[in-house]
Design brief:
By secondary structure, the protein is an alpha/beta fold. It has 16 helices and 10 strands. The longest helix has 31 residues. Bound molecules: S-adenosylmethionine. Keywords: Signal.
Length: 481
């Protein structure tokens, strides 16, 4: 069945064919962590008011601890950034294009709206595939496992994930001041005109929620943040007491945990973070409304059955946030790093690129921007791989990248041995084996020999580059994993 057809069916009917075998009463050998269903609440008026959306199950909202009502007041610089952001979203007949930030936002909201249905459809297909096994095989599976009951079990968990997507969507409508009717009209047109499937990017962003804001992400965060936070502390200690705030910029900030960790180090630190992806930005805007630890939960591992040691692991609920978040401690600038900061010069004492420099078409554009944005003597901290994606124009190896950086006026600083072994004997880059977006309890490991270095801006004497390309670079979410 095509997805468009599925969307016309109530969810309960859509999966009716997924597990035609009778449910067995025997206890699963491996008890899944199914939480009690949340109280159903009526769908939002706009969802009910349009025939576009099928009358699926009531969506339970994950409101426990979501305290939008006590959002702290915005500082003047946050207010200015928000006004600029809303301005950038204004559409006119002249500027309307797929690269317009409002268009990209609508795509994300469309994807969030369809998140649950898309994966319920996938589950239905898996159920149908199972039914095509020879009866003798299914008989053995039934007799020795609970596999045949997993479809219904997991189908019943999907409303919780759907509710998370809905909450992110609803917060985005409010935050970006978008009329729900505009979204409904966009979805209607998009679904009538072309095929659509934003789920890889939605899932990618939700997986970043695990990486950044749950206890499950600690195995990635701790070794990743350790050298960065230690270096920032060190630089702060050398920052003269009368020199005002110590300004740090984190481009390509993902879902922002590192930026918040840096801000939490010391009140003298002022952090600005930047992120291009509207998938990341809508999730970030939502997660920073959650003030109470563990106030929200979902089941991030139910959509991928590979590498799972047990049903309990596949269905395990993950809670977020793992800490109380202060949204006002970081200034979050949405948009292309090369464009958003083009008019600033000598504004930051440190720039931290985490899993970022390889997202550029030409890393030299990023290096040039770092050099312009840093104060003389400012520091560039890097940690990440060189995984070039998105049709790069330049794919320098580590040695060449460091050589070009030196030619652009960066002086590489010695760093402690505890941060990792030197990758090249004559260079100061240190290798750290770091995980990225994997469940540590699964049977899969996704790691990089990420490179850590600290470089000081000494001079900026090379021939100026022409301005970078007008369009934001074509970042393909998921290109790192
Ligand atoms: C591999 S992810 C790393 C995210 C985050 N630093 C982390 O470690 O979890 C790279 C991030 O850079 C962002 N990005 C790519 N190109 C960008 C650009 N031109 N301006 C701002 N952000 C960009 C992507 O959207 C993505 O979130």
């Amino acid at each position: 069945m095509r997805l468009s057809a599925l969307l016309l069916l109530p969810l309960s009917l859509a999966l009716a064919s997924a597990s035609q075998e009778p449910l067995v009463n025997s206890q699963p050998t491996d008890e899944p962590t199914v939480e009690p269903a949340a109280e159903p609440t009526p769908k939002n008026a706009y969802l009910a008011s349009t025939e576009l959306f099928p009358p699926g199950p009531e969506v339970a909202h994950l409101t426990t601890g979501s305290t939008l009502d006590i959002e702290p007041p915005l500082s003047p610089r946050h207010e200015k950034a928000k006004a600029q952001l809303l301005d950038s979203l204004i559409r006119t007949p002249q500027n309307w294009a797929r690269s317009h930030p409002r268009y990209r936002l609508l795509e994300v909201l469309h994807g969030l709206r369809r998140h649950e249905y898309r994966y319920v459809e996938q589950l239905r297909e898996w159920g149908e595939a199972y039914q095509t096994l020879p009866e003798a095989q299914r008989e053995l599976i039934r007799a020795s496992t609970t596999y045949h009951t997993n479809f219904d079990l997991i189908r019943n968990l999907w409303p919780k994930n759907g509710a998370l997507a809905t909450n992110i969507l609803e917060h985005a409508l409010e935050y970006y001041e978008m009329d729900p009717a505009e979204l409904a009209s966009y979805i209607e047109t998009a679904e009538a005109q072309r095929s659509w499937d934003y789920q890889p990017s939605i899932t990618d962003a939700l997986n970043h929620l695990v990486r950044d804001w749950t206890a499950d992400g600690a195995h990635e965060r701790e070794p990743t943040y350790a050298p960065i936070l230690a270096t920032i502390k060190d630089l702060l200690a050398k920052h003269p007491a009368d020199a005002g705030t110590f300004k740090v910029l984190v481009p390509g900030a993902g879902l922002g945990r590192l930026a918040h960790e840096i801000a939490a180090l010391d009140p003298r630190i002022e952090v600005t973070a930047n992120e291009y992806s509207a998938y990341m930005n809508t999730c970030y805007r939502y997660v920073t409304t959650l003030r109470t630890p563990s106030s929200t939960s979902w089941h991030p591992y139910i959509n991928w059955w590979s590498h799972q040691p047990s049903l309990a692991e596949t269905t395990r609920a993950v809670h977020m946030p793992d800490v109380s978040i202060n949204s006002s401690s970081v200034l979050w600038i949405e948009g292309d790093f090369l464009r958003e900061f083009a008019s600033e010069e000598g504004a930051y004492h440190a720039i931290v690129s985490l899993f970022f420099i390889d997202t550029a078409k030409s890393s030299l554009d990023y290096l040039d921007a770092f050099s312009r944005l840093l104060v003389p003597g400012g520091s560039w901290l890097n940690l990440g791989p060189l995984l070039y994606g998105s049709s790069p124009k330049l794919q320098l190896n580590l040695n060449d990248l460091l050589a070009v950086s030196e030619a652009m006026g960066f002086a590489f600083q010695p760093t402690p041995e505890e941060f990792g072994p030197l990758t090249l004997p004559h260079r100061t880059a240190r290798a750290r084996e770091l995980g990225y977006l994997y469940n540590a309890r699964s049977m899969r490991r996704n790691t990089y020999q990420a490179q850590f270095w600290v470089a000081r801006k000494e001079s900026r004497t090379y021939t100026p580059f022409p301005p970078p390309e007008a369009e934001p670079y074509n970042f393909a979410p998921g290109s790192h994993f």
